[in-house]
């Protein structure tokens, strides 16, 4: 890779009507002449819906993912639609630990097509301990589907992730799942959604039958009612049959009448759907499903296609709008190593924000100001990869051999752009990490650095502790297990982790020099980029600290 291959022309951002790759030089220059025009880029961006499913573990996220893929045409079939029994070894469980525990740590994207619209479903880890990963994924999507178990309502992890979506202003589609099982009353759930989300809940489908006897659905938008029947235990899309009132026996007729009356009641009390309010995250459309039977899944796909926002312009950290048809740009929201045991590689997952991505293109990294060759670009789900030639705004690309890329990096061609970095999630667990074999200190440093860049754990240092004993911080303790295992197996630098009493962290924005590095129940630590934080054992220690050192300004991380 020579520097000449990427001598971009600053200020050469293409305006509407010019080719997306105009103004670029170097390795991809030959491709630029027949690169798609701005209108094509806009068209492709417009038919993309990039979303994530957020839920508490066990609400049915994996089942719903499979059901969505089953209904849509999977553009890239990477072992997703093969049923629950094989799922845990086919989708994203690439680390031994994931296989052992049946949990999914890695995030990848699944792409499928429904009614000429491309849906990018970005996978989020199932375990609450990896919510930091989920947090990053939420920076890369344009919409979230919040999945609720009809019998459990809002659970802690759902609420935590809902909070993150709200902070990001993400539009949210609410799905009440497992309606085929006994659960709460539908009206009660609608009220709960309103209270918990502070958004107006507007049902778009309404179930015929209470939770536990799911007979069919009323499509509130067009008034059509369909009876549902599971086919081959959920291995095929559910059979849908229009309800014909004259053919119903009295009990059935009553069931549908009640459903229609209740649906009318809800609509008249909450109002109808309003696209602007949904996009502004002031209103949440609500749908009912039984993902395991494929009930209501087609309706959810229709709602995503018709109502969810397409990939649109993103604003840089300096407030400059980068239109989708501008030169290529994207950002890294996830970095992963060791997916392939035979090649110890790094994959950076990039969300495309503008322009067209063509494999082989040389792109610039805004942080390092260095070029990056995209010879190995893939769609990645778990261990499976497919070479990817072209991708558009909203798509997720896995860049292989991406050791130089970090979470939050902005990548571009043409006019430079830097998107706002992905904020950290506040860790609640802290350990001191030491190499057990002092002879492998070099590997120890390299490993810790790599895990930090990938965002596997957060790393802090202080003069007091020295470089040999960094503090690792995590949102959930399983993150430490991943770090420990990778240090041992991948970097051959086994570590010893000593737990610390801290549970709270604050950013120390000003006056940090006026406080000692260590104090009762806390200490000051620094990230690699120099940001100072203060960690505390409990709330009382924070109160005591602010009283003792009033010149230090503390702020909450992740809000
Ligand atoms: P998660 O990814 O959110 O953790 O949940 P997952 O899809 O693994 O689903 C958790 C359990 O809930 C699974 O049962 C799954 O089959 C069941 N489930 C998901 N959606 C529905 C639904 O709409 N109706 C019903 N009745 N069950 C649903 P399991 O017992 O763990 O596995 P399995 O033996 O059923 O495969």
- Beta-strand percent range: 25-35%
Q: Percentage of helical residues?
A: 25-40%
What is the domain total for the residues? 3
Category by helix and strand content: alpha+beta
Radius of gyration from CA coordinates: 25 Å
Give average pLDDT, whole number.
84
- CATH first level of the largest domain: Alpha Beta
Low confidence ranges: 1-34, 76-95, 97-107
- Distinct small-molecule ligands in the complex: guanosine-5',3'-tetraphosphate
Measure the end-to-end span.
40 Å
> Assembly state here?
single chain
> What name does CATH use for the topology of the largest domain?
Rossmann fold
Per-chain topology:
Blueprint: H1 29-33, H2 38-46, E1 48-55, H3 61-71, E2 73-74, H4 83-90, H5 96-101, E3 109-114, E4 117-122, H6 131-140, E5 143-149, H7 156-168, E6 172-177, H8 186-197, E7 200-203, E8 205-208, E9 216-219, E10 224-231, E11 236-242, H9 250-270, H10 275-279, E12 283-288, H11 297-307, E13 314-315, E14 321-322, E15 329-337, E16 346-354, E17 357-358, E18 362-365, E19 370-373, E20 377-381, E21 384-387, E22 390-391, E23 396-400, E24 410-412, E25 429-435, H12 441-454, E26 458-460, E27 471-474, H13 478-489, E28 495-499, E29 504-510, E30 518-519, E31 522-526, E32 532-536, H14 539-548, E33 553-556
Parallel strand pairs: 1-4, 1-5, 5-6, 6-12, 7-12
Antiparallel strand pairs: 2-3, 3-4, 8-9, 9-10, 10-11, 13-14, 15-16, 15-24, 16-23, 17-22, 18-19, 18-24, 20-21, 20-23, 25-27, 25-28, 26-27, 29-32, 29-33, 30-31, 31-32
Bound molecules: guanosine-5',3'-tetraphosphate (G4P).
């Amino acid at each position: 890779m020579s520097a000449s291959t990427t001598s971009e022309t600053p200020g050469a951002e293409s305006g509407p009507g010019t080719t997306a790759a105009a103004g670029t030089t170097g390795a991809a220059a030959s491709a630029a002449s027949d690169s798609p025009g701005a209108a094509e880029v806009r068209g492709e961006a417009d038919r993309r819906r990039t979303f994530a499913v957020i839920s508490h573990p066990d609400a049915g996220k994996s089942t719903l993912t499979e059901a969505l893929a089953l209904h849509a045409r999977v553009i890239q079939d990477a072992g997703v639609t093969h049923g629950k029994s094989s799922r845990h070894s086919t989708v994203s469980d690439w680390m031994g630990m994931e296989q052992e525990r049946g949990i999914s740590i890695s995030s990848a994207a699944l792409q499928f097509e429904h009614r000429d619209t491309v849906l990018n479903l970005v996978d989020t880890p199932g375990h609450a301990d990896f919510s930091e990963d989920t947090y990053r994924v939420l920076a890369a999507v344009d919409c979230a589907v919040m999945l609720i178990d009809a019998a459990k309502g809002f659970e802690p992890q759902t609420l935590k992730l809902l909070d993150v979506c709200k902070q990001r202003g993400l539009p949210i589609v609410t799905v009440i799942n497992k309606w085929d099982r006994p659960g709460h009353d539908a009206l009660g759930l609608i009220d709960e959604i309103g209270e918990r989300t502070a958004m107006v809940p507007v049902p778009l489908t309404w179930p015929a039958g209470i939770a536990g006897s799911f007979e069919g659905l009323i499509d509130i938008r067009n008034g059509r009612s369909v009876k549902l029947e599971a086919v081959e235990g959920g291995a095929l899309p559910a059979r849908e049959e229009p309800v014909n009132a004259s053919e119903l026996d009295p009990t059935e007729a009553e069931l549908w009448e009640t459903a229609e009356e209740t649906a009318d009641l809800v609509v008249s009390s909450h109002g109808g759907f309003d696209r602007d309010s949904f996009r502004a995250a002031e209103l949440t459309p609500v749908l009912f499903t039984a993902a395991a039977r494929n009930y209501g899944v087609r309706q959810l796909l229709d709602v995503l296609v018709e109502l969810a926002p397409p990939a649109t312009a993103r604003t840089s950290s300096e407030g400059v709008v980068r239109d989708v048809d501008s030169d290529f740009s994207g950002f890294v929201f996830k970095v992963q190593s060791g997916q392939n045991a035979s090649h110890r590689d790094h994959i950076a997952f990039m969300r495309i924000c503008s322009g067209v991505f063509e494999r082989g293109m040389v792109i610039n990294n805004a942080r390092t100001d260095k070029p990056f060759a995209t010879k190995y670009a893939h769609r990645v789900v778990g261990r499976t990869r497919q070479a990817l030639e072209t991708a558009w705004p909203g798509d997720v690309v896995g860049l292989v051999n991406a050791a130089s890329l970090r979470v939050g990096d902005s990548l571009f061609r043409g006019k430079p752009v830097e998107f706002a970095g992905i904020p950290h999630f506040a860790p609640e667990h802290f350990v001191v990490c030491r190499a057990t074999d002092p002879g492998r200190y070099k590997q120890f440093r390299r490993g810790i650095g790599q895990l930090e860049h990938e965002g596997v754990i957060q790393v802090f240092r202080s003069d007091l502790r020295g470089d040999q004993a960094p503090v690792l911080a995590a949102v959930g303790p399983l993150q430490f297990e991943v770090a420990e295992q990778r240090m041992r197996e991948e970097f051959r630098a086994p570590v010893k982790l000593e737990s610390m009493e801290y549970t709270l962290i604050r950013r120390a924005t000003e006056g940090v020099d006026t406080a000692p590095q260590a104090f009762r129940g806390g200490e000051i630590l620094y990230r690699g980029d120099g940001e100072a934080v203060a960690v505390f054992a409990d709330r009382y220690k924070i109160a005591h600290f602010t009283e003792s050192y009033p010149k230090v300004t503390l702020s909450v991380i992740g809000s």
